[in-house]
Amino acid sequence: MFTLEAIKTIKKSGTVAPSSKFLVKKMTKPIEDNDNVVIVEFGTGNGVITEGILDKITDKSQILSFELNEAMYLDALESLPEDDRLQLLNESALEFDKFLKEQDIEKVDYFVSSLPLSLLKKADIHYLMSKVTSLLSYGGMFIQYQYSLGKRDLLKGYFSSVRLGFTPLNFPPAFIYYCTMLG
Fold this sequence. Notes:
Strand content: 15-25%
Helix content: 25-40%
Shape: globular
CATH architecture: 3-Layer(aba) Sandwich
Number of domains: 1
CATH class: Alpha Beta
Number of helices: 8
């Protein structure tokens, strides 16, 4: 289902295949299993990265995962295990801050993003990154994968540190951006 829906909506999904276990491992590697970790995921897709996050966090942590594509959202609802730590939302990632406010969440420890930044309007990226950087906790991280290095300089404009990872064992091969704010 994922591949068919991804191809049908490629101008929004930005991919044709689910993330590999190798990409999931690299995306979730920095996440520490401290108590009360708040994670916001942009682009639930088929939920493989979401599951990788769930495997790394404690019972006192929580994930708010946003998936705009209704078919993918419904598929993730069905395929992901029922878990009190996870809240799936069929909403735009651009409005994530409204949901944080509703739940009295002031800071986010990790943002994990599968958004196709190369397909988003520059104004939407600025809008999103401005919110991300204002709500990222001290020592927190924004983790983003892309299939090119095209948005590296853009991310460097928002974060004081942008480290790069790469996984060739994904289709297509992917770059992982590990972005932090240094004191």
